[in-house]
């Protein structure tokens, strides 16, 4: 199925297309991202209800009853039930979906389980994108049920238009009500299993906590509702309260959605930046080596992060604007690379990347915001730089020019009679390909050519 065909079928409310689209965005594929781009102009009409709470609070049964109540109004309902991840398949453990099978034959109800896949916060990482798919498919209300959450797993408030927090008697909620975190995000509190002993005490504890807050005139004050999800008692009143919240806070909905969009955009940029770093900046295995150095206390995590960031930004600037031949780095022969890196950091605040063994040398790159400084330290007594240090001491060793096609550059130089140290490229740092021009053809200057992926 082509992207355009899938999006057309999705907008036409084809449930199979909806399922396929959610799978694509859940897999974080490029096709899924392109699909979101195609359908995004058709979104913004659904109202997102978040239902969250601790494990065993009865969220799934409550959502099942809410679906039945909301369907009485004729609304089309989409449900995203976030489940724990199976340790065997990596997929969702479908406990939530099983509890909602009474709506399986309703064409106007779409229920999808999503695995957390290790993502914290109570949601899957792509829950927001899946909600966008349901929005584009014309579902009037999208209910997002989080996995059983702890005190600080509050991503739902950054995803839904209203957050319903479910608590139960006898689970320590009297104490939880006094804590920051999940109890602070609720627009509506629900004491479920209200037929149990202690329900009144739990509700009173939550109400006592709310009494400490003093909302401004006209601001919403979260109510405390009581429900028995197994029988449906209290659910109509809960749905009515959700409708009231929607009406009374309608003017603030735009600001709330803008704040959600800001959080989501920042998260996507961070994720895409890390993908760029993994694919284009760090050589295979380099992140693990850097992580080992952080764990061994050879470098602090801030310095390690700064060095990767500087390399990523430097590479982006050069590749976009530097032209076909640009200065990549200046190589300096040093006796002790670690000591010299410490000097640059102490004097100028410059960060140095993790050392890398290339041939007979240890290489470290000092990030300057432009071309880097390469510290070249001999790894063996007979390394070429060791002989250089004996003759000249610590000094400029070479300059390196970045070229778009090193094979073509070497062929051109050979044709013009330039003497080369490397007739064919060899492996350099960070997965690059390098070659050196002999100093006799460059008035005594050693010039390196470098091509990166």
Kindly describe this structure.
The protein is α/β, with parallel strands linked by helices and 453 residues long. The protein has two domains: 42-248, Rossmann fold (3-Layer(aba) Sandwich), CATH 3.40.50.300; 285-451, 2,3-Dihydroxybiphenyl 1,2-Dioxygenase, domain 1 (Roll), CATH 3.10.180. The chain contains 15 helices and 15 strands. The protein has helices at 3-11, 15-26, 30-39, 59-71, 95-99, 127-136, 173-176, 199-211, 235-248, 253-281, 286-295, 301-321, 337-348, 384-392, 406-415, and strands at residues 47-53, 77-83, 109-115, 141-145, 162-167, 188-191, 224-226, 326-333, 356-358, 361-366, 372-378, 395-402, 426-427, 433-437, 447-451. The strands form two sheets. It has an eight-stranded mixed sheet with strand order 9-10-11-8-12-15-14-13. A seven-stranded parallel sheet has the order 3-2-4-1-5-6-7, with helices on both faces.
Short synopsis of the structure:
The protein is of the alpha/beta class and 453 residues long. It has two domains: 207 residues, P-loop containing nucleotide triphosphate hydrolases (Rossmann fold), CATH 3.40.50.300; 167 residues, 2,3-Dihydroxybiphenyl 1,2-Dioxygenase, domain 1, CATH 3.10.180. It has 15 helices and 15 strands.
Record keyword descriptors for this entry.
453 residues, alpha/beta, Rossmann fold, 2,3-Dihydroxybiphenyl 1,2-Dioxygenase, domain 1, 2 domains, eight-stranded mixed sheet, seven-stranded parallel sheet, 15 strands, 40% helix, 18% strand
The domain count comes to: 2
CATH superfamily of the largest domain: P-loop containing nucleotide triphosphate hydrolases
The biggest beta sheet is recorded as: 8 strands, mixed
Radius of gyration: 30 Å
Number of strands: 15
Molecular shape:
elongated
| Strand ordering within the main sheet | 9-10-11-8-12-15-14-13
Q: What is the CATH architecture assignment of the largest domain?
A: 3-Layer(aba) Sandwich
Q: Which bin fits the share of residues in helices?
A: 25-40%
Would you tell me which CATH topology of the largest domain applies?
Answer: Rossmann fold
Order of helix and strand elements from N to C terminus: HHHEHEHEHEEHEHEHHHHEHEEEHEHEEE
């Amino acid at each position: 199925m082509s992207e355009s065909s899938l999006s057309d079928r999705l907008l036409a409310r084809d449930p199979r297309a909806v399922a396929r689209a959610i799978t694509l965005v859940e897999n974080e594929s490029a096709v899924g991202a392109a699909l979101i781009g195609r359908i995004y102009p058709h979104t913004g009409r659904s109202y997102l209800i978040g239902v969250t709470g601790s494990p065993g609070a009865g969220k799934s049964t409550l959502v099942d009853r809410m679906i039945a109540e909301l369907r009485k109004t004729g609304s089309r309902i989409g449900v995203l039930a976030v489940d724990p991840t199976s340790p065997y398949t990596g997929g969702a453990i479908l406990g939530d979906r099983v509890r909602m099978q009474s709506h399986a034959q309703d064409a106007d109800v779409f229920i999808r389980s999503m695995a957390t896949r290790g993502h914290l916060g109570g949601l899957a990482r792509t829950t927001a994108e899946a909600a966008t798919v349901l929005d584009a498919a014309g579902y009037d209300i999208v209910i997002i049920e989080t996995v059983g959450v702890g005190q600080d797993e509050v991503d739902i408030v950054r995803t839904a238009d209203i957050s319903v927090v479910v608590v139960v008697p006898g689970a320590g909620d009297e104490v939880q009500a006094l804590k920051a975190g999940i109890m602070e995000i609720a627009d509506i509190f629900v004491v479920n299993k209200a037929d149990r002993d202690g329900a009144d005490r739990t509700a009173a504890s939550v109400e006592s906590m709310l009494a400490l807050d003093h909302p401004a005139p006209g601001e919403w004050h979260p109510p405390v509702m009581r429900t028995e999800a197994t029988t449906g008692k209290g659910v109509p009143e809960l749905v009515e309260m959700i409708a009231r919240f929607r009406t009374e806070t309608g003017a603030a909905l735009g600001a709330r959605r803008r704040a959600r969009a800001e959080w989501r955009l920042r998260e996507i940029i961070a994720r895409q930046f890390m993908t760029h770093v993994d694919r284009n900046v760090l050589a295979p295995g380099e992140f693990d080596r850097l992580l080992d150095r952080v764990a061994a206390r050879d470098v602090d995590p801030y310095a390690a992060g700064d060095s990767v960031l500087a390399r990523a930004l430097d590479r982006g600037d050069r590749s976009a604007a530097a032209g076909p031949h640009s200065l990549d780095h200046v190589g300096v022969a040093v006796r002790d690379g670690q000591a010299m890196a410490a000097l640059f950091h102490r004097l100028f605040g410059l960060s140095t990347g993790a050392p890398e063994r290339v041939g007979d040398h240890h290489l470290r790159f000092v990030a300057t915001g432009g071309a880097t400084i390469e510290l070249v330290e001999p790894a063996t007594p007979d390394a070429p730089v060791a002989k250089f240090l004996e003759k000249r001491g610590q000094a400029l060793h070479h300059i390196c020019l970045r070229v778009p096609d090193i094979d073509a550059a070497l062929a051109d130089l050979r044709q013009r009679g330039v003497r080369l140290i490397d007739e064919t490229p060899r492996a350099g740092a960070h997965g690059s390909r390098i070659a050196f021009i002999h100093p006799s053809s460059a008035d005594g200057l050693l010039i390196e050519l470098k091509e990166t992926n």
